[in-house]
Amino acid sequence: MTPAMSDRAFLSIGEVLDLLKAEFPDVTISKIRFLESQGLIDPERTPSGYRKFYEADVERLRWILRQQRENFLPLKVIKDRLVTEGDLVIEADADPVVIDDAPED
């Protein structure tokens, strides 16, 4: 869980932007909203209309941005992969987590 998510289970769009800025310096709130308008992400909304991004939403967004940057894939191709393969494609491409249980000397 990210530090910003410790008080509640979701992030605002601004918090998501702050979280992604280091890896994707060119990402903007407008870009995140555009990806939503294209059907690539679908964050929940509060009763007052604010977006609620959960950890899975952030990982999906990170995967989309990586596909654009590293593989130069157009949004249509990315969307098609997400539709046909679902979140499995995101999990398959995720960076492996390495847990080192060896004691430090």
Write up this protein:
There is one protein chain. The chain is mostly helical and 105 residues long. It has a single domain (9-92), classed as Multidrug-efflux Transporter Regulator, Chain: A, Domain 2 (Orthogonal Bundle), CATH 1.10.1660.10. It has 5 helices and 2 strands; from the N terminus they run ααββααα. The protein has a two-stranded antiparallel ribbon with strand order 1-2. β1 (44-45) and β2 (51-52) form a beta hairpin. The two termini are 29 Å apart.
Write the layout of secondary structure elements.
Elements: H1 13-20, H2 29-37, E1 44-45, E2 51-52, H3 55-71, H4 75-85, H5 87-93
Antiparallel strand pairs: 1-2
Strand order of the largest sheet: 1-2
Got a strand count? Answer: 2
- Note the beta-strand portion: under 5%
Largest sheet: 2 strands, antiparallel
